[in-house]
Amino acid sequence: MGFVTPSPQPDRSVRAVLASGCLALWCFGAQAAPREPCTDEATVALIKTGQWARVRTLMQQRIERTPEAPEPALRICMRTLLGGVLARLGELHEAEAQLQASHADALKLLGPGHEATQEAAFHLATAYSKLGQYDKAIPVYRAMLSIAEKRHGASSLPVLTLLRNTSTALHWVGNYADALPLDTRALAIAEQLVPGPGSCDTPGTCDAIRGRAAQNLASTLIRLGRHAEALPLAQRGVDLQRASLGPLHANTLDAQLILASALIDAGRIPEARALQQQVRDQARQALGPSHELTRKAELDFGASARSAGELQAASEGQGAQLAQLRQRLGPAHPEVLLTSTNQAERLMRLSQNREALSVAEATMRDTLARPDTLLFDDRSLDAWLAMQSRLHGLYIELLLRNQRVADAFLVSESLKLRRQSLSLNGQEGADSGSGEARAARKAASRRLHLIDQKVALARSLNQDTGPLMAQRAIAFAEWQRLRAQMPAASLPSVQAPPPWLAAVVQQAGAVVGYRFFGPTLLAFVTEGSGVRVVVLDTQDRVRPSIEAYRLTMRAIAMAPRGKPLSTLPLWRLPSGAYQHSPTEPQPEARRVDDIDEVLRSLSQWLVEPLWPKLAGRERLLIGVDQNLGHVPFESLPLTAEPQAKGASGEPALLGDRLAVGLLPSLALLDTLGERQRRYAKSERRPLLAVGGAHYARIAKVGLVQFVRPDAGRQLGAMDMKQIWQGVQRDRSLLPLALAQWSQGGWDDLPGSLAEVDAIARTADGAGPRRSLVLRGAQASEAMVQQLADTGELGSFRLLHFTTHGFLSDDEPALSAIVLKQVNREPGTDGYLTAAEIATLELHSDLVVVSACDSGANASPGGGGAAGLSMALFQAGTVSSILSLWPIEDEDSRRFMEHFHADLAAGADTAEALRRTRVWARAQKLSRHVVQGLVRWGP
Description:
Layout: H1 21-24, E1 26-28, E2 34-37, H2 41-48, H3 52-65, H4 72-88, H5 92-109, H6 115-130, H7 134-152, H8 157-172, H9 176-192, H10 203-223, H11 227-245, H12 250-265, H13 269-286, H14 292-303, H15 311-329, H16 334-349, H17 353-368, H18 379-401, H19 405-419, H20 435-460, H21 466-483, H22 500-505, E3 510-517, E4 520-527, E5 530-538, H23 539-558, E6 570-572, E7 578-580, E8 590-591, H24 596-606, H25 611-614, E9 619-623, H26 654-657, E10 659-663, H27 669-680, E11 685-691, E12 698-701, E13 704-707, H28 717-727, H29 734-742, H30 750-764, E14 772-775, H31 781-790, E15 796-802, E16 804-806, E17 816-818, E18 831-833, H32 834-837, E19 846-849, H33 868-875, E20 879-883, H34 889-904, H35 909-922, H36 927-932, E21 933-936
Parallel strand pairs: 3-9, 9-10, 11-14, 11-15, 15-19, 19-20
Antiparallel strand pairs: 1-2, 3-4, 4-5, 6-7, 6-8, 12-13, 16-17, 17-18, 20-21
């Protein structure tokens, strides 16, 4: 297979590949040995002089004279060459058809690894790229990549070329996250190149390839917002290519434009503009005013204008660039999004807030109209969401700068929900199509959820995700096709209010929507039909302190029984933030002896500035953002009223005054209200309670021990995930972890059986036993699946799980309710994961998961909203009660029995939980139980 040094443009001429094996003079037979010439000397001479029309005629005549047998590779090779010639002549659709046929015949007759097949594949992918069909080019390049690695070696020049071509195609579809590992690997290969056969010809050529690889990686990092890493790579790309190719070579000039972009993102704008102007002048001189690179340099120079005197040039330059990109790529392409966002930011820096808002608003409308594109890995969504997040934050800031506070609130909450992969309005309304269409969309979404779980598990275990990605591509295409039937999402505003706004305004209690915004935290507080915005503390203090408190509470709970921590692994930094660490994290950090100090600080930052608007209310509904879902709001002391006392005589807490509910977004409020009203009209059973599951093979009742037979126990993927996660910090613990797993892996929870039995008696009262209790061997994933398959799972008003919980440290979709682990039924692993829960059909008012860490989320920016709580909302529940950290078995039993007794006495969920918390504090129950059980829902 022929490869050459990558050209500066994505397309490759036939002349450029004359040095390749098949397309030079010879074709290959079944054993890939040279047999007959593909072209005669006259054709080669025409190719060398660029007489492509005559080459086409000669090749067509030669193909007609060549029989299919006995050497099919000869005819296939000539058809591939003809396809390349047609592409050179601009007859792209004819070239595509010719190359598709050539590639299909090569696959059928010669196999995927044959030289002629790979040549056809390469030119087919090139034709797709010229046609802008990059989504078709990418799988062809990827298939070639695996074959090239086996044939030429993983660090060969052909592999590097394919990595670059694949990355270029991924850039064109905006999939920068998938391009990043390819560019990183390409640079690693380039660094190892030495002149020789099968490699670069000279040291200068090797340096040129290295420079181009560094430039490509810098470009990808810039688009992912990783500017600090991009700058030195961009500089190295310029230095290497200037030394090897010369200062006026197109590659060198292009590399300098990438460097200028990195300089702008680093705030070195004058330096960047000087470089852009230099490149523009040199490109005019060396390449001519009509060259694509010259036009790009002119547009970049105009777009980077920043002073008042340069504003007109900036507007014209950016406008011309946007118009060009929109025409070529479409209004909602990621590259258009990036350019539009940059323009809005520059205008905002010039205090042109109205003009900036107009640009940002138009871009927001374009992105809402664009379906998410997931090609090969759901990590590509991360890059798209990161770009959107930057635009969203900019748009909200511009709304505030233009005194549109209410619109900023509506957009903030709507986008939180969109970030959770739900529709913008939080529900599918009556105009979303027939019941059959909605059911088909839900079924497609379920398939996607379950494949995503497998992908997350494989990625967490460092396993190959390729086959799963192929399944996902098919499932995603079907889901996207069905989603296209729904009405397009709209941009919410006071003039076009979303449906959920009425539900917020009608709330009797206080409503607060928190939003991390740049370096600060904002709070939107509703006031009647209006909204007020309050600027709170800095993000750099709030977010780390929340995580420090959660991790310290977890460390206290996980300390060996009878050996409490002698000192807290908790520190206050000079910045005022708190950090969890066993040792001093930085100089002048102060060790914290009283963990309540963190709660007092959080109250001062999050509640005290809002207290005048909250005082006197009975309810508080909070729309959280990022890890604010980890804050035990009801347990925050009322620092705004330091003399106030609670019902127990201790300092008053927020929960003494207000019943608090959390939502991942206030935009869910109307959906949950509609669910509540619809569910109330249906006949449902009181309770499904699951507890007393068999976890350990060696069980203990009183002083008696016995062994539960567990024949055929096999180590499953989730078992491997749980074991590996537990020993990552100390690999020497692996044998102990495996031995523990062989005994069941989890300790039995003796209090859980008594808990579910007592709750069921309370729920049924004096009437007939209508509740269902799954205990012991029945507390299994198989039983839950059976109830789901028959539809019975959706017939319960309350669901209560008292089990173990598993908190995934990297993939929120893998956090799980842990059910029976001994004698697991075939096809089950005993882990009811968040991804699986999201596919269930619930019609419940409340789901309680009385399990360790059930409401936590260890992923960056998490806070429960991406784990079990969001999965339960997606499954159909109205509210849930989950735990932020590990909780004790016996104290949680007492807490839950009291809570359900209050529910049975007529209190609603919010008030019953508030009363139970006050009672639990008076009873001196564990602070982990009192503080850790939080309510998600209205």
